[in-house]
């Protein structure tokens, strides 16, 4: 009988923690410019503090960057227009270097290396802007990365919002 009570209590504690994490994500995302994207991107986060949520946001950003590199490479292979290929190569280069740095972001956050983190996320945002500008410089072509690139830029903005909140706490 007591083991049933233990498992029931454990179950209730897990539900409570999950609800607290979900509520924390929602409340934290309300403090960003892109609330809906933030909530959607971090809905599976179990973080109950800002540092944990920032780690999760950095992980989402890193994963998103990795996917952008893959997508850019795939599009390079299938693109028939040499101008599109040229810009996709530029975009791929812009994302590759910073994506590698972002993979180290959790350790940097643990050691409170905020300067490094800020540099890396700034570089990520700059890479996103360079990719957009490279396509805009060629008015005859449409960016096949436009939506993904915009989302990546917004994710950078969300991470910056969390950095600012961490700095205030």
UniProtKB/TrEMBL annotation:
InterPro entries linked to this entry: Invertase/methylesterase_inhib, PCW_Enzyme_Inhibitor, Pectinesterase_inhib_dom
NCBIfam families: PME_inhib (TIGR01614)
Protein name (record): Pectinesterase inhibitor domain-containing protein
Alphabetized CDD domains for the sequence: PMEI-like_1 (cd15801)
Keyword entries, A-Z: Disulfide bond, Signal
Domain called Pectinesterase inhibitor: residue spans: 20-162
SMART domains the record matches: PMEI (SM00856)
Domain of life: Eukaryota
Presence of the UniProt keyword Ubl conjugation in the record: no
Source organism (scientific name): Jatropha curcas
Protein family: Belongs to the PMEI family.
Signal sequence, renumbered to the chain: 1-21
Keyword Phosphoprotein tagged: no
MF terms (GO), sorted A to Z: enzyme inhibitor activity
């Amino acid at each position: 009988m007591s083991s049933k009570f233990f498992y029931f209590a454990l179950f209730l504690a897990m539900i409570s923690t999950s609800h607290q994490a979900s509520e924390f994500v929602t409340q934290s995302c309300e403090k960003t410019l892109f609330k809906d994207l933030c909530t959607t991107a971090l809905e599976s986060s179990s973080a109950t503090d800002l540092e944990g949520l920032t780690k999760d946001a950095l992980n989402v950003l890193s994963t998103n960057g990795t996917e952008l590199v893959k997508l850019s490479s795939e599009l390079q292979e299938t693109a028939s227009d040499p101008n599109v290929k040229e810009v996709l190569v530029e975009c791929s280069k812009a994302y590759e270097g910073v994506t590698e740095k972002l993979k180290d972001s959790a350790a940097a956050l643990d050691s409170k290396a905020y300067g490094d983190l800020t540099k890396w996320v700034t570089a990520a945002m700059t890479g996103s802007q360079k990719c957009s500008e490279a396509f805009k410089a060629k008015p005859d072509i449409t960016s096949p990365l436009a939506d993904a690139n915009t989302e990546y830029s917004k994710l950078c903005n969300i991470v910056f919002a969390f950095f600012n909140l961490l700095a205030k706490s």
